């Protein structure tokens, strides 16, 4: 496939992804300076973390396990703030967007564990329970107060959400967590345990920014407590290799970069990362045919069993090695 067709394919996928992230109910207000708004957002997030305390239900095996509440510390209160508590160390992830570096604070209440525990990459789908709040400052009788106002809660998710179709903050934090285990009950319900659970504090630039969504005002930082129950592996380019296995540097993240940025997940350097590229090594042979066990059949190798070119190759699997067809 030539580069034009590959680029067209990538753009089509990007359009689909972008359309999934928009809501018909969104309303946009005048655009603010990204750096100035981020300075306001991060100040409000840090103030919230310093003036509120957190309570976590640690009740393994129960439906309310890892439920989280946030409460304002009253004047003279002795509760330990989110900022100062040490049970769940505050972690950060830096994200480049809009020509500035955003900081996402997050807490890992539990990483997630089990015999089949796994982490999503940032383009997979997640089954996650969550509660979302937006941060809002209001002034009454000359007194300004920062509040967290709940806008949504989903304790029993019934469908998977694609991390390419939700806000950027989710896609950056969920790969830091793992699934747990689950069992089916006689009544047809499912019970989850040992799942990953956490809290993320997202600046508006990595959320909805100037678009209001439902009851969420524009330019609102968001706070999510969440539980990662299960994941679905995606295959964005339909080449038969799940996208997470096309994460060349194995960091859990894949992106489409500008042309002047070297992409570690782009084998042939054509500007189309492998997870969107139907011909990963640029040898004009489609990846989905290179991983077939027999060219006359449709059966494909499991990823670990995809052969290399042997002594004539460079040790890479044959769909990543253009010398296999030279």
What does this structure look like?
- A hairpin with a 2-residue loop joins strand 6 and strand 7.
- The protein folds into 2 domains: 1-26 and 236-326, no CATH class; 31-232, Roll (Chitinase A, domain 3).
- It is built from 4 helices and 13 strands.
- Helix content is 14%, strand content 27%.
- The radius of gyration is 22 Å and the shape is globular.
- The strands form 4 sheets. Strands 4, 5, 6, 7, 8, 11 and 13 form a 7-stranded antiparallel beta sheet that branches. Strands 1-12 form a two-stranded antiparallel ribbon.
- 35% of the residues are buried.
- Residues 1-25 have low confidence and may be disordered.
- It has 326 residues and is of the alpha+beta class.
Short description:
The protein has 4 helices and 13 strands. This is FKBP-type peptidylprolyl isomerase.
What number is the mean pLDDT? 90
C-alpha Rg, in Å? 22 Å
Shape call: globular
Counted beta strands: 13
How many helices? The count is: 4
Which CATH architecture of the largest domain? Answer: Roll
Structural domain count: 2
Beta-strand percentage range: 25-35%
Structural class category: alpha+beta
Order of helices and strands: HEHEEEEEEEHEEEEEH
End-to-end gap: 16 Å
At the third CATH level, what is the topology name of the largest domain?
Answer: Chitinase A, domain 3
State the share of residues found in helices, binned by percent. Answer: 10-25%
The largest β sheet comes out as: 7 strands, antiparallel
Protein name: FKBP-type peptidylprolyl isomerase
Organism: Flavobacterium capsici
GO molecular function: calcium ion binding; peptidyl-prolyl cis-trans isomerase activity
Keywords: Isomerase
């Amino acid at each position: 496939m030539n580069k034009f067709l590959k680029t067209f394919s990538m753009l089509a996928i990007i359009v689909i992804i972008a359309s999934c992230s928009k809501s018909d109910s969104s309303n946009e207000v005048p655009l603010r300076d990204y750096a100035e708004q981020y300075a306001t957002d991060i100040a409000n997030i840090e103030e919230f973390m310093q003036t509120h305390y957190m309570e976590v239900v640690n009740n393994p095996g129960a439906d309310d396990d890892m439920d989280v509440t946030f409460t304002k510390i009253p004047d003279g209160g002795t509760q330990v703030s989110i900022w100062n508590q040490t049970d769940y160390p505050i972690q950060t992830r830096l994200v480049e967007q809009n020509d500035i570096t955003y900081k996402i604070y997050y807490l890992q209440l539990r990483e997630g564990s089990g015999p089949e525990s796994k982490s999503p990459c940032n383009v997979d789908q997640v089954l996650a329970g969550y509660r979302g709040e937006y941060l809002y400052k209001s002034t009454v009788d000359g007194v300004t107060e920062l509040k967290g106002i709940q806008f949504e809660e989903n304790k029993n998710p019934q469908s998977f959400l694609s991390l390419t179709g939700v806000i950027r903050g989710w896609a950056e934090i969920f790969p830091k967590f793992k699934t747990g285990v689950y069992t089916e009950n006689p009544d047809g319900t499912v019970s989850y345990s040992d799942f990953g659970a956490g809290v993320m504090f997202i600046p508006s630039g990595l959320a909805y920014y100037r678009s209001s969504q439902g009851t969420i005002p524009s330019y609102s930082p968001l706070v999510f407590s969440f539980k990662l129950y299960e994941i679905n592996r995606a295959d964005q380019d339909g080449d038969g290799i799940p996208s997470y296995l096309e994460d060349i540097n194995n960091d859990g993240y894949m992106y489409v970069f500008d042309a002047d940025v070297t992409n570690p997940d782009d084998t042939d350097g054509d500007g189309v990362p492998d997870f969107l590229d139907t011909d990963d090594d640029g040898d004009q042979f489609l990846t989905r045919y290179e991983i077939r066990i027999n060219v006359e059949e449709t059966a494909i190798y499991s990823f670990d069993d995809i052969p290399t070119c042997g002594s004539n190759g460079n040790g890479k699997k044959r769909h990543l090695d253009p010398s296999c067809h030279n």
